[in-house]
Amino acid sequence: MAVPDDGVAGVRFVLQTTRQRTMSLAFRIGDLLRERCAPGALFATEWDAREWRLWRGRRAADPLDAGFAAVPPRGAARDTDAEAFERRAARAGVDGWAGDDQLIEPGLVAVAVPVRDGAGRTVCAVSVVSHTSRHTLDSLRETVLPRLRAVRGELEAALAAPRPAPETAPVRDTSLEAKRELGPGFLQSLARGLAVLGSLGATGATGWR
Length: 209
Hints:
The protein is of the alpha+beta class. Helices cover 39% and strands 16% of the residues. A hairpin with a 4-residue loop joins β1 (2-5) and β2 (10-13).
């Protein structure tokens, strides 16, 4: 499962489930990956003109993707020009899925589908990755796409389901106790502000993401 990192038009994988015998990936959970992977094309389908402009500026400033240390340099991947990625993003918007044919790492192919919230926004992508010794991109798509779509439906139903209000205990202001214990170096007003924000965040009232 991957989520977008909007600040740099990148992708971060946040969950990985593997079999006992599995391939070794160069990147780890949480690493910042470039957008050319399958989830990246899906996320780009919702970019507006401003986001595309920022992405093109980042590409021009960092043509070799040196800012993405967790993956091989751009020259090792197949689509090395901006237009190729734009075409893949446009195709993903039409097809509803995206593929990665050794773009994020040599020897890996992947198929991904978007997961949308109740408002229709893509919040994450789920994908299946295989090695080229087992699948081509086409054979992997034929094998896993029906199941991926079924899983996507289950996730979207869970996102759309009403959620009960969380049961939270009243937040106790401990700033006075901390002030007495830590002395003048303790910022009581800051602590109180953080306590209020924490309380609002616990009830979902802030709309934080």
